[in-house]
Amino acid sequence: MSRKRDESPSSLWPAIQFTVNGGSRTVRVPPMKRLLDVLREDLHLTGTKEGCGEGECGSCSVRMNDELVNSCLVPVLQAEGADIQTVEGLALNGDLHPLQQAFLHHGGAQCGICTPGMLMAAAQLLAHTPHPSATEIREALAGNLCRCTGFMHIFESVAAAADAHDAQQANEHTMEQTHHAR
Ligand code: FES
Ligand code: FES
Question: Residue 167 and residue 57: Cα distance in Å, rounded?
Answer without folding.
Answer: 32
